[in-house]
Each structure stands twice: as C-alpha cells, then as structure tokens.
Amino acid sequence: MDSMFAPSHLSRRHLLQLGTLAAAGALPLITVRPAQATPAMLASAIRNLVGEANIKVGKIRLDIPPLVENGNTVPMTVSVDHPMTPESYVKSIHVFNEKNPQPNVASFHLSPAAGRAQVATRIRLADTQKVVAIAKLSDGSFWSATVDIIVTLAACTEEMP
To answer: In a 3-state reduction of DSSP, which class is residue 18?
Structure first.
C-alpha cells in the first residue's frame, strides 16, 4: 500500500500539509501525556526486588533535600552502615520514587572491592513525592530508608519557550 503517510514518503512538504490540516481541524490532534507512577506501582516495583522478604528500616541513609525548588536535578547520596568485607557486604542499592513516570530510579551493584557502600547521583523528580532507597546485603536481608520530598517546580512538566 503506497500512502503519503508512509515514512518513506513523508517529505517536508507532506509534513507541512499535515500540519495545515491539523491546524484547520481536519485531523484530530492527540496529546500524549507522560505516564505517572502511582503508590501501587512503587509497592509493586519494591516487591519485584525483594519478593516476600521482610524489609527492615535502618542501616541505610538517604541524603536528599526535603525541599527542592526545581525537580530537574536533585542531588542524592545513599550510604549504608555496613562492612564491605568478602564475608559481609552490601550487594546492591536500589532507589525508587512514587510519582515519576517509572518507579525505578536507579540500581547500583556493589562488591567488597567498592570499599564502602555509598553512591551519589542526581535525579529528576516529577512532583512532590516519596523517594525510597533499599539496600540488599550479602546475607539476603533488605534495609530501607524513605524521604518525603516537596518539589516546588516539577521536572517533567515545564513548558519549553
């Protein structure tokens, strides 16, 4: 089927014609809004990581500002108070959020060679929400920390000039 809408036939002229038709109301305009994670999606993502294991509070520290002016670049450091020896170490650190398009923010895999269980990065936050950090230790236990963050200017919703 040879159509002017096939990718191989979309010239600049055809795109301008489509834009004119859309502006005239001849074609429906579809607005695509990014998906937003929910508290249920957060809980599901955490369960996918830990399965039925019990998650204990403590050992892990989530340093992130509780109030951020702009959600586009939020500094975050996660550290775990645990030795990093071959017998006992932090295997991984996972960060989740409650309202970004995806609940999984980052996963960091560590070994005793890391020397200490600490990671630092910057993240984007779409709105005021909870951020959860979970550490998995070599003994199979999970530890968590949660911070509620107020975002005054959301990251994923700013209008471009």
So the answer is: helix
User: Is 1 found in the same domain as 21?
Assistant: yes
73 in Cβ contact with 122 (< 8 Å): yes
Do 24 and 58 lie in one domain? The reply is no
Whole-angstrom distance, CA of residue 129 vs CA of residue 134: 16
The residue ranges of the chain whose pLDDT is under 70 are 1-36, 154-161
Question: ∠45-50-53 over CA atoms, to 5°?
Answer: 140
Let me know whether 70 and 126 are in one domain. Answer: yes
The pLDDT assigned to 127 comes to: 87
pLDDT the model gives residue 11: 63
pLDDT at 158: 46
